[in-house]
Amino acid sequence: MRQVLLLRGINVGSRNRIAMKELRAALEADGLGDVRTYLQSGNVVCDSDAAPAELAERGRRLIAASFELDIPVIVRSRDELAAIVERDPLREVASDPKRYLVGFLDAELEPATLASLSELVAPQERLAAARMELYSWHPDGVSRSKLWNAIAAGRLGASVTTRNWSTVTNLLAIASDQPPSS
What are the φ and ψ backbone dihedral angles of 66, each rounded to 5 degrees? Predict the structure, then answer.
């Protein structure tokens, strides 16, 4: 089964550095098939019959053993990623894929946490939650966004890692054996 591993917070500035070539080699040595990486920010497409939660834990343990880093790993199957793209609840407003983000969670958010996030949405922003994803639109960027800062802070009661819409759709293309768009 084709799966996508999303690593949280690697290769950001000088912290949590992992070379993609070394990550691919470690994952292949651990038995994952057809391992491909996309960009330098911890996006891996591979073949594995493991359940997504099992693969996430396996990836986390492997990264700890191989790179001495405790990095959360979120996994979605190719079909789950296709459903996330198909769902696209903000397609009517999100016009710039670089400012349209998907937060991938390892568990559904508590209603109170989601309500707290909703209170932080600025008038020009949008937020939609669906299953274990947060879709957020930041037309003015994320640097001053209270919503983005709350999502990125990692205090949601669930691990989260975000990708912009371009990365999400390109990961789906790779997982579907199609070339990513440029």
Answer: -85, -35
